[in-house]
């Protein structure tokens, strides 16, 4: 059992000794014992347990620990049915990792890393077990490939020569939700970058060239040595599954600058397109046809067939469970839905599933 708020209230002398634990807290404890796929931890105020999926996720690290060793964990449940505090070493490690990454960004701390892979958009590195991307335009002038005519295959050949070489980099962007890290080498040359950035302004519209395509968006070269990111959510008003379906490296595009943070430029393509939400004539209760795009833990994303650019969510509760949802509908097929919530100002659309009748299948 753990010491909770009521226990502290009845025993005020505890107030100066213990911090009342909360779900999500990062806590340290000493390994008491190991039994099969369960590890018991002395937290001081109670006994914690790492078992099940959490044990499997942290198995390699836990194998290296002995009884009496200290471990850092995260509380995922304050008290389970057996009275133990449920803990996770993986979640604790993940939170610690992103806090450290955030500190590196804030301090603009240089880190030495070795290039692992190359693609037409840049180089791939690994920092503390997580891979990150160094876009072509974030290379220093020393390493930037100078290829006549901008031939993409020749650029890739030049980049491949860097595999195995050590670079001094900084982290300029992190996205813990998508587990993405963007590195920069040229940020070690701040004066030159500032001179180039001085020609650009937020809300300005410029022509650029697609220089890299990744899962979370596309990189656009505005000029030699200066690049911005169009996040996948800024590519189009419609739901985009794969940026490579829309663009290829070398494509010319018009972009709008939506933010400049240090030497990081955030761009938008959809901001230059008409917002389909503003002209859509939808009301609560309307029946629409929806194309199933993808599933996640919240439900299924639906693209409206009659309204180009509009997509919404049909919550998992519409299907009783996630498993029932996947059994009932299929990605790439169209089903009837009813509008539950339509808020064009906030681009919010909630849909109710009306039945299994398939209207048509999209190849």
Describe the fold and architecture.
The protein has 363 residues and is α+β, with helices and mostly antiparallel strands. The chain has four domains: 5-93, OB fold (Dihydrolipoamide Acetyltransferase, E2P); 111-188, OB fold (Dihydrolipoamide Acetyltransferase, E2P), CATH 2.40.50; 190-272, OB fold (Dihydrolipoamide Acetyltransferase, E2P), CATH 2.40.50.140; 277-353, Beta Barrel (OB fold (Dihydrolipoamide Acetyltransferase, E2P)). 17% of the residues lie in helices and 39% in strands. It has eight helices and 21 strands. The chain has helices at residues 5-10, 53-57, 59-63, 89-107, 152-160, 190-197, 276-279, 322-328, and strands at 26-35, 38-42, 47-51, 70-77, 85-88, 111-114, 117-119, 122-127, 130-135, 166-175, 180-184, 205-214, 217-223, 226-231, 252-261, 264-268, 287-296, 299-304, 311-315, 334-343, 348-353. The strands form five sheets. It has a five-stranded mixed β-barrel. A five-stranded mixed beta barrel has the order 12-13-14-16-15. The protein has a five-stranded antiparallel β-sheet with strand order 19-18-17-20-21. It starts with a helix and ends in a 10-residue tail after the last strand. Mean pLDDT is 86; it is low at 1-17.
Report helical residue fraction.
10-25%
Unreliable segments of 5+ consecutive residues: 1-17
Q: Into how many domains do the coordinates divide?
A: 4
The strand count comes to 21
So what's the overall shape? flat
| Pattern of helices and strands | HEEEHHEEHEEEEHEEHEEEEEHEEEHEE
């Amino acid at each position: 059992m753990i010491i909770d708020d009521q226990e502290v209230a009845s025993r005020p002398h505890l107030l100066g000794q213990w911090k009342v634990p909360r779900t999500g807290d990062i806590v340290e404890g000493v390994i008491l014992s190991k039994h099969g796929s369960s590890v018991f931890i002395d937290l001081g105020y109670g006994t914690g347990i790492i078992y099940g999926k959490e044990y499997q996720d942290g198995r390699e690290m836990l194998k290296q620990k002995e009884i009496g060793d200290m471990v850092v964990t995260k509380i995922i449940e304050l008290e389970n049915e057996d009275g133990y505090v449920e803990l996770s070493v993986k979640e604790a490690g993940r939170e610690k990792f992103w806090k450290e990454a955030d500190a590196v960004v804030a301090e603009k701390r240089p880190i030495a890393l070795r290039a692992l892979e190359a693609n037409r958009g840049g180089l791939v590195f690994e920092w503390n077990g997580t891979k990150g991307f160094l876009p072509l335009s974030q290379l220093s002038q020393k390493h930037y490939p100078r290829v006549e005519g901008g031939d993409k295959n020749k650029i890739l050949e030049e980049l491949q020569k860097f595999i195995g070489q050590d670079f001094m980099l900084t982290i300029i962007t992190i996205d813990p939700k998508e587990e993405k890290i963007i590195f920069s080498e040229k940020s070690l040359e701040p004066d030159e970058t500032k001179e180039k950035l001085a020609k650009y302004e937020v809300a300005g519209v410029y022509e650029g060239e697609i220089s890299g395509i990744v899962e979370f968006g596309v990189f656009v070269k505005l000029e030699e040595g200066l690049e911005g990111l169009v996040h996948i959510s800024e590519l189009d008003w419609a739901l985009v599954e794969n940026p490579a379906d829309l663009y290829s490296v070398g494509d010319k595009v018009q972009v709008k600058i939506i933010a400049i943070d240090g030497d990081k430029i955030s761009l938008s393509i959809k901001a230059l397109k008409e917002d389909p939400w503003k002209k859509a004539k939808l009301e609560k209760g309307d029946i629409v046809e929806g194309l199933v795009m993808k599933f996640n833990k919240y439900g299924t994303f639906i693209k409206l067939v009659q309204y180009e650019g509009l997509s919404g969510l049909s919550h998992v509760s519409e299907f009783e469970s996630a498993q029932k949802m996947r059994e009932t509908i299929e990605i790439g097929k169209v089903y009837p839905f009813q509008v539950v919530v339509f808020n064009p100002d906030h681009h919010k659309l909630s849909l109710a599933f009306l039945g299994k009748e398939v209207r048509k299948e999209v190849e």
